## 1
Amino acid sequence: MPRQARLDAPGILHHVMVRGIEGCPIFLDDQDRQDFVSRISQLVEMTETRVLAWALMENHVHLLIFSGPKGISKFMRRLLTGYAVRYNLRHRRNGHLFQNRYKSIVCEEDPYLLELVRYIHLNPLRAGIVKSIEELEGYPWCGHGVLTRRRKNHWQETKYVLRQFSEETKKAIRVYRKFMGEGKQQGRRLDLVGGGLIRSLGGWSQVLSLRESRKDLKHDARILGGEDFVQDILREADRSLRRQLKLGERK
């Protein structure tokens, strides 16, 4: 069965997941992690991609991003290819580093943006890399501490996220910390790591209820969101593809 094309258009919220091939580590030390982060920094400026949340784990990466004017393909291709080449040279290895293609789920902002920020930033705590939510603020390889102003980087989009909590920065950080603390007992949120009808509706019970009412909903495995959002995204993706084809014909 052929793979579906990625949905890629400007200004769309994506939850991107990258995994090491066969579950192997993609970071062996902090030098590797710093190289990956430095590449994100360069590409954010180059492609106008906005990174709202991120976490580097031993064998996978989570990114929550708004795509730039040309989508996320260029950003992700340069990030992963450049990093893999340097990683292989540094560690004297050959072959692929990442598992297949990166996974990208287009997400509806409401209600998923803040839930995804929390889910992504709690990854190091869930994995036992840090022992407490307080320790997470000082952890350098995810974006939580940047949002609370404990750590700094110039490329992470913080204002947009904090504004969801309050227009006043200090209050926003306080409410954000509370929001994070309330989620620290959450396990792996399967509803936030994919798209499709079941996840978008909140589970099988809602799907079965709609089946009984014989209501047909528009859904797509590449999208996490409501029916209207799915239709809007698919229409925009179709328009974007047509524009690309026209540009190709002119060359």
## 2
Amino acid sequence: MDIVESLFDIQVQDPPEEDFSSIDLTWTKFGTAEHHDEVALIPYARVDSFIIGECSNVECPTRFHIERGRKRSRGSLKEYKDDEYLEYRL
């Protein structure tokens, strides 16, 4: 499997099932030759369906928790750097 270096080259997947899990997705190697991860892109609106599907797996149930993060006030971020990577924190 080739390593993809840009998120724009990864197809967004939207499985037809109401709730779906990692088995229903096609995973892509993303990163560089030195460091890469297997990723799959899904629409943000389907994240809850993915979580429900993962937690419903009888053989290997998954648990998610919400991480606390520091909330910044609007306008406090002076400079934005686009690194083509969005980390979704559950």
## 3
Amino acid sequence: MNTPSHYTSRFLKISSRIRLSAVLVVMFIVGCSSASTALTYYVLHSVDEPLAKPSKEYTYLKLDRFVMPEYLKQRGLVYQTSETNVHISTTHLWAEPLDVGLKKSLKKAISNYGVYLVDDEQYHASKTIHVALHITDFISRFDGEVLLSGEFVVLGSASPPDHKANWIIPFDIRVALQHDGFSASIEAMRESLMQLASQIADNIKVTEKE
């Protein structure tokens, strides 16, 4: 015959199992939640490449206007999944606004061509070439390449509001991805900005000589 103590012991064992099961379920849910919300942050500019110091031989450049499309103003990295659709990631994010990273990358890239991108504090109107940059697309695509397109306008060395457009130069730069993943996309983005920097440098140096 079972005694009251027997039933009490059995009840305690069942209660312990229920509590253990509940704890395991909670741990599983928390683990899944943590895994699904893990965030990865990226920078567009390379932190390993030093910025070349300006010299008297440098051409000085100032971006008077910088425009990029609304879909690039998101914090999530963007991937074009088809001719009509884009995906904005919620877990792969830029560590800083893309326009900030893009200007940093362009500043480093264009310094390799003897051009120094100045900010307002460094601005010297008498020897600075003014440029407006309009980005139409800057995106990793489903066909295995990064597309950087738009146009830049060389405004000459006159101070605003006396700017006159010397040239309007469209660009359509495509760089193949070396492998899959967002890291590969960013490497290709950096290469596309190097090519854009080369185009801008070539054109503003022509303006400087005129």
